[in-house]
Amino acid sequence: MQEGGMGIAHLFHACFTERNTPPTVPQRGPLSSTHHHPHRSHQRICKSVAPTPEGIIFFLHSLHAGSKRGWQNHLMSLLGREFWSRRSGLPLLLLLLLSSLQQPCAADYCSWKGSGLSWEPHSRAVEQVHLRCTEGFLEWMYPARALRVILEPNLSSARHTTICIKPSSNFQGANIYVEHDGQLHLLVSEAEEPRLHHVSCFSTHSPQQVALFLQASPQRDISRKTASFQYELLSNQSASGRDFQKMALVKAMCRPCDNMELLMAICSSDFVVRGSIQNVTHDSENQMSQVEVDVHRVYRQKNRIFQQDKETGKWQGPIKTLLQCKVKKGMGDFLFTGNEHFGEAWLGCAPRFKDFSAIYQEAREKGANPCDFQFN
């Protein structure tokens, strides 16, 4: 069995080398994929198969669908003889296979965290990471050589996809390129100052698979550098460009919503809160404005952007919008709606609450409201 065992071990190692080294379980913060969303996959962990030869064959076959069955039958016969000849317990080979199967698979994660220190020092191979969600993050500590990131979200029905990358404030050690038509196009440069690392977006006509290429910069010392970023993918969008202002995330943000858009906003927005404007600040350099809101009622929020102050007991939170919208501080209560991107709230429809109440009541009397809204 020694010769057969060596062949099986080599075959099993080849299967998992293609699938990449397992990442650590991502600790999701404000950017979470565990909330329900019609276009978002959720974080999954590969589970071990049943302790039978048939289970292992099925698992390996699922990793390499379409392969010839010759090696599968050979492996089945080897495992079968060894399995049934040891009635006192599972053979060592089977236990080793099962212990490997219990490790998480990189392809089933929304996020990945790894280090260049764990790679072979003299190898020139390019490591690959597969991410299958529409949002997540990547953290590459001590970047070395290169890393190819394959985004494979479940967006088979999308005609277009807008992909946005937001580098961390301490992004160092690598440049990010996007592969397009067989060429690499620079997306994020390490040479830029951290404060200039804006959100970069581009569109693709092939949402099933998008490749990013991270090339490590030459290291002159052993200080810790980390190349990390968040990503988001949005289906059925046609906008593209490097500037966040041009993204489909904030399209038509400055114009008032009509009645139907408002009624839809309370149904589909990531957050819906009632409150008043405490303050408005403007950032001319980044062409952004931020609205500080005193929240009187949180109807819905995906993440904890609006939080209660422990000392005062009041709920507060920031909402971002474009500088060109010329937002000013107004009196009275408003209904703030919008979506969250990269852990920040972006303003959508924001009518005065009394106006919204009248619009909703009229639509409800006519049976035209797309969803119910609980005022109390």
TrEMBL record:
Which superkingdom, per the lineage? Answer: Eukaryota
Compartments reported by the entry? Secreted
Keywords, A to Z, come to: Disulfide bond, Secreted, Signal
> InterPro entries attached here?
Meteorin-like, TIMP-like_OB-fold
Q: Name one GO molecular function term.
A: hormone activity
Stretches for region Disordered:
19-40
Any one GO cellular component localisation term in the record: extracellular space
Family membership noted in the UniProt record: Belongs to the meteorin family.
Q: Known PANTHER family for this protein?
A: METEORIN-LIKE PROTEIN
What name has this protein been given in UniProt? Answer: Meteorin-like protein
